[in-house]
Write a structure and sequence with these properties.
Elements (H helix, E strand, L loop, with lengths): L1 H10 L8 H23 L4 H10 L16 H13 L15 H15 L3 H20 L12 H18 L3 H12 L19 H17 L15 H5 L6 H5 L23 H16 L9 E8 L4 H4 L12 H4 L3 H11 L15 H7 L2 E5 L11 E7 L4 E6 L12 H12 L7 H12 L8 H12 L1
Parallel strand pairs: 1-2
Antiparallel strand pairs: 1-3, 3-4
Helix pairs in contact: 1-8, 2-4, 2-6, 2-17, 2-18, 3-4, 4-5, 4-9, 5-6, 5-7, 5-9, 6-7, 7-8, 7-9, 8-9, 12-15, 15-16, 17-18, 18-19
């Protein structure tokens, strides 16, 4: 059975068996996730999840990002999952269309701190969990989304359970049970897309919490169905209404590393609009080079190509014809985000503020955006981008990109990820800058560190400023 094959591979994994570039990629994603969580704390986002996690209390086992008081490991995993996802700035595996780090890193940080794991053990668990998340999602591309489910919330509990189980010392039998148990917590409805609610931010928290609980239950002797992936009532038939080829999940384990192909976001919005934003940015850059006045009032039309699988998520009813209903709603409104780029010259965390989304001139420009569905053989999150902007003198300027920045086709290196982390964690403030730099060094040096505890202590110092 596939769950056992995954468990057998994961329990046999060692830090030395992970290629250096894959290890380094995992550390970039860990730094990115921590930075996103700190960024959420700085902007008072993710607060309800953090408040509830603190209220759960429990033994002092692990720290939520930015806190100096420890709570139970499951509660800390919940808090950190919510914080890492709150800005919608977290990484994406294009083929799986999941946010792997935000469901795996919270479990790793919490359990590694709880059990006193070494840095090498934490990184090994992180890579194993990321690999499982990517492969489970890629086995049914857009399958969960098409059923109204958030793929990250479907595969997240299983990936978190694998990472937590390894740190708890699970053998193959126990880890197989943990995967089977975790799958009964899979879910995550996409109904928020039609309301502007931000329930999606809670999904990774639920996944991390469920993953840690599943691992603990398995270690305590609870059993889970070994056939949970390919069974007739298993994950894919029940939640994606399809059969899958198990070999797609386990093929080339240990030689092909999907976790090294996870993209890191340059924009704090849904990944499915990033190629369009980059293409519009290319138009604006070309116009400046040509000496064209790019004042928004001169624009008469904007046309952007969009992958068919992206339409329902970022070009749904009301997008481009009404102002966003909430900050989170704006992050899934491609026409409005394109218009914001035209007006602001950039799309940053501050673009999606309450004040920003209410500007009528941006909403007016969003009404000029025409979306064209263009098939692409590649996954939607890896698709090319094309945009055309027409000005009031009839001048048409075209911008094209082969894929969006940050994806595996145009990846961010260590320096770029560290810069993003600095922007999230300290911004333009000098407060906390030294601690932020020490945190960058601590994350990139984790493989040789005795524990993850200095990372959590530094995160608290950065938040305290």
């Amino acid at each position: 059975m596939t769950a056992r094959r995954l468990a057998s591979w994961a329990t046999g994994l060692s830090i030395d068996a992970i290629p250096e570039d894959t290890r380094r990629a995992a550390l970039r994603h860990l730094l990115d996730g921590i930075g996103n969580g700190i960024g959420a704390r700085r902007r008072d986002q993710g607060g309800p999840g953090l408040s509830v996690a603190r209220g759960l209390g429990g033994p002092a086992q692990a720290h939520p990002l930015g806190d100096s008081e420890a709570i139970s490991a499951p509660a800390a995993a919940f808090a950190n999952g919510v914080l890492m996802h709150a800005l919608d700035f977290d990484d994406t595996h294009a083929g799986a269309l999941v946010h792997p780090t935000t469901v795996v890193a919270p479990a790793v940080l919490a359990v590694a701190e709880e059990v006193g794991a070494t840095g090498a053990q934490a990184v090994t668990a992180l890579v194993a969990g990321l690999e499982v998340a990517c492969r489970l999602g890629a086995a049914a591309p857009h399958g969960f989304h098409s059923r109204g489910l958030h793929a990250t919330a479907v595969v997240g509990p299983l990936a978190g359970a694998v990472a937590a189980g390894l740190l708890y010392g699970a053998d193959t039998d126990a880890l197989t049970d943990a995967i089977g148990i975790a799958a009964s917590s899979s879910g995550g409805l996409l109904e928020f897309l039609d309301t502007g609610a931000n329930t999606k931010t809670l999904h990774p928290g639920n996944a991390g919490f469920s993953g840690v609980l599943a691992a603990r239950l398995a270690m305590a002797g609870a059993s889970g169905p070994e056939s949970v992936l390919e069974g007739r009532r298993g994950l894919y038939r029940a939640l994606a209404d399809r059969d899958i080829d198990p070999d797609v999940i386990v093929a080339d384990l240990g030689t092909r590393w999907e976790s090294a192909r996870i993209g890191i976001k340059p924009y704090p919005s849904c990944q499915l609009m990033h190629a369009a934003l980059d293409a519009v940015g290319a138009v604006l850059d070309a116009a400046r080079e040509q000496g064209v006045d790019i004042s928004p009032t001169r624009i008469t039309a904007i046309t952007v190509d969009v992958h068919p699988d992206s339409l329902e998520i970022v070009c749904g009813p009301g997008t481009g014809t009404r102002a966003p209903r909430s900050v989170y709603d704006a992050k899934f409104d491609l026409p409005w985000s394109v218009a914001a780029l035209v007006h602001y010259g950039a799309v940053t965390v501050d673009t999606y503020s309450g004040k920003s989304i209410g500007r009528p001139e941006v909403a007016a420009t969003a009404g000029l955006v025409e979306v064209v569905s263009v098939p692409d053989d590649r996954p939607a999150a890896d698709a090319a981008g094309r945009a055309v902007i027409t000005f009031d003198d009839g001048n048409r300027i075209i911008g094209e990109v082969p894929c969006s920045r940050g994806t595996s086709g145009q990846p961010m290196d260590d320096d770029a990820v560290a810069d993003k982390f600095r922007g999230n964690s300290v911004g333009n403030s000098s407060a906390g800058g030294d601690d932020a730099e020490a945190l960058v060094d601590a994350v990139f040096g984790l493989c040789d560190a005795p524990s993850v505890r200095p990372i959590l202590a530094l995160a608290a110092a950065v938040v305290a400023g």
